[in-house]
Amino acid sequence: MKKKYLLVLLAVVVAASMIFVATKGKDDGGGKSFEGRTLRVHWAVFAPSDALQDIANKQFTPATGIKVIVEQTPWSDFTKKYNAELIARGDAWDIIIGDSQDIGNGAEHGHYLELTDFVDENGIRDLFTPESLSAFGEWPKGSGRMYGIPALTDPTFFAYRKDLFESPKHMSAFKAKYGYALDVPETWEQLIDIAEYFKEDVDGMYGVAVYGDNGYDSLCMFGETLIWNYGGDLGNFETMQVKGIINNEGSINGIKAYRRLFELGPPGMGTAFFEEVNNAYISGIVPMIFNYLATLPMLENKEANPFYDETAYFVTPKQVNHATSLGGQAMNVINYAEKNHDIALEFLKWWVTDEAQVAYGMYPGSFNGSYAILNNKDFAKASRLNPVGIESMALLKDWWAVPVYAKTIRTFAETVGRYVIAGEGTAEGAMNSLADQWHEIFDEAGYYD
Prior knowledge:
Blueprint: H1 2-21, E1 38-44, H2 47-64, E2 67-73, H3 75-87, E3 95-99, H4 103-108, H5 116-121, H6 130-137, E4 149-161, H7 162-165, H8 168-178, H9 188-201, H10 218-229, H11 249-263, H12 274-282, E5 288-292, E6 311-315, E7 324-333, H13 341-351, H14 354-361, H15 371-374, H16 379-382, H17 386-392, E8 396-397, H18 405-420, H19 427-444
Helix pairs in contact: 10-11, 18-19
């Protein structure tokens, strides 16, 4: 795979560099200079947003005279805020770096500018992996029509305490209890055993920190990972069939595993997302956590993480199947901000260059599916997060990207959350109810006509 990436990169590197270089110093095509204009970008509060602002200040603005403002909104309000603006057909921002699930909604409702010709004219299909382009820009899936450019390809995996896993005391006690060696888990059942051991047999410790329901998609992202690994699925993305799939045996077993892991975690995690999970880790009360790569730079900060030297990472384990949740966002040009379409496209031309992508990839947590990053010899060494991120690329799967995706997220979080977080009912009951609700959502949207 790496050899393939390298060959492709060598073939396009010169062209990629020239996409933006050739436009430097030019006006907007109407005789007006770019100098003094401002591009407004909306993203969430986390490390990649800071990285984007920094490299835009260092590279893009000096080359074009265009000032870039990356407005950051807390994750709890991020998608609500930009969707409210889109529904109002507002132009508060020129580019929204929106979630991958939102691509269908943005495309079908006319919120996002179609970029198919722009992508083809600038050779952008050669600069990113096909999977990244499809996940973050293509709608309908398989059509080749593009509405976004990958901004962040964000795999999920685990951070863990090497000192606890390698402690002779814990290794001996664990093997005596479970009959096999304490090590990085290869399966989810092994991970559950490890979490159980630390909660039940180690004073002052809980087993693992995972997501609760943050009011958006946190519960869905961990839930889908377990569903896939235990042999289930969200549904058939082509036929939109959900009954007999989201509530099949594998899906139910995945949600049972979620409930068990949640029980083995610290108290007060009912609304937990990445910050709460990280805080549980650095407070020293759990041996491992599940999180997105882009949200883990806190653990790479020696001042913030007292266990920095003991911290390591491992790929999401397998069970019946092997997959992990895809996070990340795409750069989407907003249709209603017509007066700045020219500088928004100029920004995208810069963004896809080798220079911009490599610089971005050097910031911890800033991972993307571009060949420039994946084949850069220094990328894997730039952060301890990156080797596991690269290994996770082949495992990535995503949520529904249909225009009614928000309804699927809320019904999943509410229905499954009652079982996982509150312990109400059964996994079978939750998943059967969810199948009925999703079928109704898709039926009302006309997918079964």
